[in-house]
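Example 9 (inverse folding). The structure is encoded as follows.
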């Protein structure tokens, strides 16, 4: 069973994502800000991080960049979820090392398909 870490500062969105991914058969843990999320990635080495962009303490982009700079986390896959949808935002996310980008609002089906897709690239 793949381990997915959800890093999302909106409590309702966090619960929704965790619940849906758990129902889809994933082992899911979560953190509510970028700094705690980065610490959890370093500690647990999840198969995938579902990462919000706009968060306190560290943004999703900063978390992503730090993950990519850490050789021990080289294979970590990242699904960025955000309301930011301008081409420049998408380009910035991919330049930071995001594996896949999902725009908010998204359906729960899109979320699961995105997670499945990223994890299938192993």
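The amino acid assigned to each position is listed next.
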């Amino acid at each position: 069973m793949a381990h997915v870490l959800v890093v999302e500062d909106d409590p309702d969105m966090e619960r929704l994502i965790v619940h849906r991914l758990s129902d889809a058969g994933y082992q899911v843990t979560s953190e509510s800000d970028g700094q705690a999320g980065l610490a959890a990635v370093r500690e647990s080495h999840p198969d995938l991080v579902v990462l919000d962009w706009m968060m306190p303490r560290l943004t999703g982009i900063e978390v992503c960049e730090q993950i990519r700079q850490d050789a021990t986390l080289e294979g970590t896959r990242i699904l960025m979820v955000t309301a930011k949808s301008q081409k420049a935002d998408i380009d910035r996310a991919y330049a930071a090392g995001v594996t896949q980008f999902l725009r908010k609002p998204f359906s729960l089906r899109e979320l699961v398909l995105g997670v499945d897709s990223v994890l299938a690239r192993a």
